[in-house]
Known about the structure:
Blueprint (H helix, E strand, L loop, with lengths): L1 E5 L2 E5 L4 E3 L4 E2 L3 E5 L5 E7 L5 E4 L2 E2 L2 H14 L6 E7 L10 H15 L6 H11 L11 E4 L12 E5 L6 E7 L9 H11 L3 H20 L3 H20 L10 H15 L4 E5 L5 E6 L3 H8 L5 E5 L6 E2 L1
Parallel strand pairs: 7-9
Antiparallel strand pairs: 1-6, 1-16, 2-5, 3-4, 5-10, 6-9, 7-8, 10-11, 12-14, 12-15, 13-14
Helix pairs in contact: 2-3, 5-6
The structure holds ligand DP6.
Amino acid sequence: MTTAIAHPNIALVKYWGKRDAALNLPAVPSLSLTLSRYHTRTEVLWGATADQVWLDGRAATPREAGKVFAFLDLIDPSRPPVEVRSVNSFPTAAGLASSASAFAALALAATEAAGRPLPLEALSALARRGSGSAARSLWGGFVAWELGERADGADSHGVQVADERWWDLALVVAVVSSGPKAVGSSEGMARSRATSPYYPLWVEGGPADVERARAAVLARDLPALGEVMESSTFKMHATMHTAVPPLLYQAPATTAVLHEVQALRARGIGAWSTMDAGPNVKVLCASEDAERVAEALRPLVERVDTLAPGPGAHLL
Length: 316
Ligand code: DP6
């Protein structure tokens, strides 16, 4: 058994849209923060009696297992049967996407188990094939996912901007609802690209947003990072809203949280919102302000979790 651990990440500048769906190549670069506390732990037995996938202690559905086996085939098309056991330390109730930590941990554990270890960049490009955001979970702290230029996607991988000790920030997760999302990311991205008149504008603005965010991280300039993060979020959601039919991931409580974050800022607390393809709001602030932010949001939502920058994927 080979075991790997990977942590989820939250995009500060968003990935939304693919230029190549088969290779999972993004239409825009993105920049994320890897998170502490929560992780996926994945065990791989390369050369088992039969192909098997266990997720959080239950047998995977045929659809889930099919995704895992297709991914393992990328590592070795004539592979032996493989057993995969994956457990999330975070309850789905945490309201965080798990595909990033899942495919980062699987890529690391499976290549090692297969006796085909890869350098981090190649591992990131492989994890990307499972789920785009997984390309960013190989590193800790702040990670950019570059567009790349090559047709085979080998240069579309993560690059660490600064590690998890660089900046003492907090990400306060306001869990509005922990249920599964109505429309998955891949489908939502395809619909946005095909139908939203704002999509070309969204794609055009991506590289400049990543550069602004990278500069803000390196300068430890929280207002600048918060501003570009909110801007990227709202541009992505404008693209979602203007798809046909519209993609409306927010719930009523989502809007209440967004207003409360603006009110906190008006009172002098440096807090900025981001949202992904779901109703939960993640609020970026200095760690010393995290408790005040959490307190303000708690009455509005199911639960609040406070996370910090976390480490990259590693073998046990
Ligand atoms: C809104 O990485 O889940 O969270 O590549 O289709 O698996 P696939 O998509 P996924 O999309 C994440 C979209 C997002 C923004 C982000 O994480 O950058």
